[in-house]
Structure formats: C-alpha cells, structure tokens
Design a protein that fits this description.
The protein is built from 13 helices and 15 strands. By secondary structure, it is of the alpha/beta class. Strands 1-9-8-5-4-2-3 form a 7-stranded mixed sheet, sandwiched between helices. Strands 7-6-13 form a 3-stranded antiparallel sheet, with no helix packed on it. A 3-stranded antiparallel sheet has the order 12-14-15. One of its GO terms (molecular function) is transaminase activity.
Length: 378
C-alpha cells in the first residue's frame, strides 16, 4: 500500500532536538532567556521590527487586537478567505467584524473592497497573506490611514515573504505570525506579534501575561510590598515557554533553506500543471516575493470535490483552505449571510491545497502531479 502523503508537515532536525534538550536540562522551562533570544532572532526576519512571542497564531491575533484597543462599538475590516481565528478573535473583544471581498486571483483582501468597507468606527484593517503571498500592504496602508485605523497583517502563512523588497513584519502597525506544525517554521504550537510601536508592544506584552504590572513606577499601590503586582487591564496567559522558543530559534536558522525548498516545489507544480485545462495555478503580483505556505490550485468546472476524493483515494492528503469565515454557523447566527463576498466564495469553490512542505521529495511532488494530470486525462 502506498504511504499517505500529508498536505503539510513539520521538518525537525537533530539540531532542533538538541536545542530543546538543552532547555530541558537547564533552569528555565518558561519565562526565561530562550524567550528573549527567540524574540530577538525573529526580529532578524522582520526587518528589525520587535516581536512578542505567544502561544499560537490565534493568541497572536487576540493579543494584537487587544494591543490595538479593539472593543465594543469598534469595527474590524478583514478578509473572509482565512481561518476563522482572524475574525473570531476580533469578535471576542466585542468588535463588529466587517468582511470585505478578495481579489479573484490571489485570494488576498482587495484594497478597493476594503476602501468601501471602512467607516469612522473601523479600529483595525486586517489583511491576510493568503498562501504566503503578501497582501498589497501599500494600498491597504492608504486605506487604513484614510480611515484613521491601524493596519494589521495576518502573516500566519508568510514569514520569510517580502513585498517590494520589504520583509513581512515591517509593513504594518501590527503583524501576527503562526508557528503551527504545518507552517513555514514551527514551535509545535506558537505565534508572535510584531510592531514598530513601543506602545503597542507594551500593551501586547501586558495582555500576554495577565495584564500584570510589576513596574513600581506604574503601580497604584507600590508600597504594598516587594512581592506586589497589579492588574490594570485584563489579560490572559499567552506565554510561549522556553522549550518551544528554543525550537523556534533553531528553526529560524533553517528558514532560508525551507524557503528555497518550498519555492522549488511550487515552481515544479507550476511547470507541470500550467497546461492542464481543468485547473488554474496560483497567481503572483509584481513585487511579491512569497515564501509559499500553500500550493493553492484552482479546480474549474465544479470538479474540485471529485479531484479531492480522487487524490485522497490515492493516499495524497490534499486540503481545502478555507470556507469563507462568515459561513461558519457562529457568524450565520449573528446575521451574516452567504453571498456577502462573491469573489471569496468563488475562490473557495475552486481551491485545493496540494502537498507542500520542506521535506517533500521531487518524487513525492511528481506523484501528486501524475495523479492530478491523470484525473484530467492528461
């Protein structure tokens, strides 16, 4: 029987294991030096923008919206073509989520649609770098500035990508990352928030750590005792432990190699599938230099499900990314209706993620290509 080929998988090497083991043998499992080191190492890939490590990409979004001061009465404008967390974490802060449509080819937030969607209540404009392709952050920056809102880049897919030669992490007021096992690098579970604003960073760090205030100069009752700490605004425990930060620092040392291999695989798919009449290969904008997280094939003529089942039957772990966020019943129950963003819905109806991860071999890729071409009789 042919081995099952997943659509995404972590790449863990001996140096990663050694980094984790060194922490386990040391004095700090959490809130220690490996956290500080990982945040500094990560900033080396964000154009020097400082970062705050957290427990997941979802936590990063929740923390970023908290840092932005999102609350009841605010609106967050975002893309529906994303994992539900981009919208859910804003809703959990009490904001109204406003979905703006995507570009029909890249799946990224359309600046023109965002311009129509923003109002004087828009606190955050949140773009998503779909599949690793950076959103058009320059145009979206203009929209955000005109609305008097902050620009957030959900870069769960795109660490290592560049937009007009600027690294992801240096383009927005707040950038969020995910380091889940299938992402471009992994800490098993983990994420981070990057921001050039010291004020936003301070608010992110506080929310990550229950909102605790330990600085005596900022406390309201500093004479309570040397043990004293206060909470001025509610936060949560989103601290990423040293043992996972050590894995992250080690993985960052391999990020360039991951990037090269993902690009090779993406290009191999492109070359082999571009002439198949039943599919569209992924689009790429001028100025975009992606670190590809997904290979988002578009399957035409309503045949996406049939191809999905055909490939799964051959042990190829394709996936679909994503149903429009407002299709989830939790948003339907709030009054959101299908048809809201036609481009996103059309993109979803065609989208199929082929296997893409750094340890995928050329023969694995060719196996997928042969199976896709065979389905279309090519």
């Amino acid at each position: 029987m042919t081995d099952f080929l997943p659509y995404g998988r972590q790449s863990v090497a001996d140096e990663d294991l050694d980094a984790v083991a060194a922490v386990l043998r040391g004095d700090w499992l959490t809130t220690g030096p490996a956290v500080t080191r990982f945040e500094a190492d990560l900033a080396g890939h964000t154009g020097g923008t400082p970062t705050v490590a957290v427990t997941s990409g979802t936590a990063a979004l929740h923390v970023a919206y908290a840092a932005a001061g999102v609350g009841a009465g605010d609106e967050v404008v975002t893309s529906p073509l994303t994992f539900v967390a981009t919208a859910a974490t804003a809703a959990l802060h009490g904001a109204t989520v406003v979905f703006a449509d995507v570009e029909p080819d890249t799946g990224n937030l359309d600046p023109a649609a965002a311009r129509t969607a923003v109002t004087d209540r828009t606190r955050v404009l949140a773009a998503v770098d779909y599949a690793g392709h950076p959103a058009e952050l320059d145009a979206l920056r203009e929209v955000a500035d005109t609305a008097g809102s902050l620009l957030l880049e959900d870069a769960a897919h795109s660490i290592g990508s560049r937009w007009h030669e600027r690294p992801v992490g240096s383009l927005a007021d707040l950038t969020t990352f995910s380091f889940f096992a299938t992402k471009n690098l992994t800490t098993a579970e983990g994420g981070a928030v990057a921001s050039p604003s010291p004020e936003l960073l301070d608010r992110a760090r506080a929310f990550r750590n229950h909102g605790l205030v330990r600085d005596r100069d900022r406390q309201r009752h500093p004479d309570e005792g040397p043990w004293h700490q206060e909470v001025h605004e509610f936060g949560l425990n989103y601290r990423l432990p040293d043992v996972l930060c050590a894995l992250g620092s080690s993985q960052l040392g391999r990020l360039a190699a991951f990037r090269r291999r993902r690009a090779e695989i993406h290009a191999r798919y492109d070359a082999a599938l571009a002439d198949v009449p039943g599919v569209l290969t992924p689009a790429r904008r001028d100025g975009a230099d992606p670190m590809w997280h997904l290979y988002a094939l578009r399957v035409l003529d309503g045949r996406r499900r049939a191809l999905f089942e055909h490939l799964r039957a051959q042990g190829i772990g394709v996936q679909v990314n994503y149903i429009p966020a407002y299709w989830h019943p939790v948003f339907a129950d709030l009054g959101y209706r299908r048809g809201l963003c036609p481009n996103a819905e059309a993109f979803y109806a065609q989208q199929l993620s082929l296997p893409l991860f750094a340890d995928l071999t050329d023969s694995d890729v060719d196996r997928v290509i042969d199976a896709v071409r065979g389905f279309f009789g090519e």
